[in-house]
Amino acid sequence: MNTVFNSGTTVEFHKLSEQYIQLTPRKKQQFRKAVQQASIDWKSFPIVKGRSLSLSPLSHAQERLWFLWNLMPDDAGYNITGAVRLKGDLDIAALRQALSGLVQRHEVLRTTFDQDAEGPFQTIHDEPVYGWREVDLAICDESVEDLLAEGARSPFDLRHGPVFRTLLIRVSEQEHILQFGMHHIASDGWSMGILVRDFCEFYAAAVDGRDPDLAPLTIQYADYALWQREWLDDAALEGQLAYWQDRLGGEQPVTTLPLDRPRRAPRNRRGGSVGVHVSSETVEGLRRLSRKHGATLFMTLLAAFDLLLYRYGGDEDIRIGVPVAGRNRVETEGLVGFFVNTLVLKADVTGTMPVGALIDQVRDRLLEAQTHQDLPFERLVAALQPVRDQSISPLFQIMFSYQPTLQRKQSSMSLVNLDMLQMQNNSGDAQFDLNINIAEENQETKIEFQFALDLFDPQTIERLSRHYVEVLEQLASGDVDSQRLADIDLTSDVPVHMPVVYPFEAVTSRIAAQAAAHSDATAVTCEGAALTYGDLDAWSSQVGRRLLALGVVPDERVGLCVERSTGLIAGLLGILRAGGGYVPLDPAYPRERLADMIADSGMRRVVVDDATADSLGDLLEGLEIVRLSEVAGEDATPLVTPVHPDQLAYVIYTSGSTGRPKGVGITHQNLAEHITDVSNRFEICSADRILQFSTVNFDAAVEDIFGSLTNGAVLVVPTPRETGFAELTQRLADSDITISYLPAAFLRSWIDNLDRPLSYLRLLMTGGEALEGCLCQTVNHKTYLSETVFENTYGPTETTVTALTHPTTDADKEAAVVPIGKPFPGRSVYLLDQTGATVPCGGVGELCIGGVTLARGYLGQAGLTAERFVPDPAIPGGRLYRTGDLCRQRVEGTVEFLGRLDQQIKLRGF
Ligand code: AMP
Ligand code: MG
User: Fold this and answer.
1) Does the C-beta of 805 come closer than 6 Å to ligand 1?
2) Is residue 768 lining ligand 1, measured as CB closer than 6 Å?
3) Mean pLDDT across the stretch 297-314?
4) What pTM was estimated for this model as a whole?
């Protein structure tokens, strides 16, 4: 045998194949072994007819569909449908004859499937049976669209057949629509073209009364299936499998777009579709670019899509499924059947990679992949992903395919006396997260994005499609080879928001103005105690004068170590009135934390009350002490000291996510700007009663204190005892609180214990960490809170308390994580990738915040300050704070919080 092999010609291989097919299974195996030992390429053996009909296995791909059909016999996800519009006189008898001829010609169309102890098998029937339905629109209530959709969606019975069916809709005497439907087990996209071409010839022949002019088929699909099972079950595929294992590695990451909704198992296959056109100039430019790289247009299109996915999600390992026709042998060219195979193409990208390098990489990998395309996808899945997850498609989630004009031509033949138009139409079901089809049609390039409606909103995919065209246009229009992936501009629809800068008026002057206007109005209450605006003005002026007498200078850090009380507010204001910046030292904090803050801030003076002077005396040793109870001798007339906008207002220590606490220095302009934003947004007025739940060491208290006092409202300070669940509820009810901020961690437990209406509470705010939709649900379900607006607020200390806020809606109850909303007018937001490039709208990036509320920086840490506060690309001299939070922006500008950058959570695909 060796000699024959070595001098093998096509004719000899063909002869050998014909002999081989007659052998017993054992002999066949010996033969294949010999072939392998002689290092003969098994692909040299053509597929021949000759199988005994009793022995008809399924191809690998068919077997998978048979398995899936048994699981879900009503699923229309594997229906393949196409329709043609027939204009002119239709000869129904000739049509029926043509359809019979078609089914006679292609065995696979008259095949049924079943299984026994040995496994699945197929039975080919002699009778050319196919499904036939005729509808006359004149006597039918349904629309053409509905009829076609119904035809596309009704399930097939693979066990009893038929796997091929037709629907003829009579629109009028001169117009009919013929729909072809096949189960994927008997067909694929390429088959549809062959089917329509063959049908046209059968019809023309029937009308003319002649034999159809079609070359006889040398083999049928079942011959191919047998050949595949025998040859591809052997070591022949080991090399191919090894290639894929090596290329794809042991872990199979998920590549998709940021989802609008989390996945659910089992998958619902409802699909939507969005189409866009690409101009011929763009395609011409892409062809030029492709030629320069020795690449095909397809390769460049795929590279452009990899680029876009990278820009959307920042993933550096991108997997995309690409179909290959699987008809790389002459014998299979004219056959109807399931030949298509799927290759998984991996791209390795970074933001700094040049575009040209990506095209080269895609070219090389695609060529490599094509030489390893025989391994059935099903076998690859079995080898790489033994654990099946019902909620996600295995190995890849996005399919990318391209049909050049050539293949379409086959199906655009004309019928005798009939003007035939192809109509697109499929079951509308989504097999993948996203399926991109690029087709060339009459000089035009059309891209269709089919997507899973369960995962994406149509607007998301519409935006993606526009971004893809933008990428293509930029690639087509010039010299992009050396541009980095991050340089491709995708900002056309990113909302540009210039932060508003309000005229500066220090919070101290605003509070003084309230005192001058309504000195008898209540300013602060704490348990039984209360201060009017006049009292507060006097006391804080006395504290201020004492501090000035001690020599406090503008910008000096002054400690504030006072129990929750009315005096706490007087002391805080007193420090500001003296021109100092307050550093809160909550006496309830651990002593080491307090000691750290005292040391790090470099403070020399501290305001205390009698209790803290006693309990923390040793800790405060070495500092000059101002006792709140001992300033009564000072002048109580309003103390007015001019304040510079850049002067320090307070320092708050934040632990951030890592490292030791760092002092964030906030200026008077930061504070004034934020308080104006908050006052406007929440329409705070003198009728409001605002609860200061948070400790002064946390900047949420800043909003409560200054939000109320600058607006003439009442600030209610609960005592430490009043921050328990029941006590807090009591306080809220007794004080008729209208506005309260409760951190999410507290809110979660408190809400379950809420046992009475809070009729005055008009605004409940929360924040501090990701807010889950079900908490929203709970808050809304509490009838006690049915009239209350519930806002999710977000803000790093570095950008002054709250930067974005979101009034929760009914839709949020379903969300895994509630959005953080939109920035206050005084802020701008950007989503940037690792290279600092703006991510496209809808993409995932680090949330960066600009505007005049940005802190000066970290106390005594210039390096860290420079790292976190970077130049604002849009405003000369402006800065941005990099929050370290991963977010994305919805179409209307609402920002969604996805997680911390440093926690490296797996975002995509959730
Ligand atoms: P802080 O500086 O202590 O106010 O912490 C700010 C950080 O808390 C932010 O960078 C976020 O990581 C997180 N955070 C605050 N509010 C929210 C929110 N509403 N949703 C999600 N994360 C939040
Ligand atoms: Mg905050």
Assistant:
1) no
2) yes
3) 96
4) 0.85
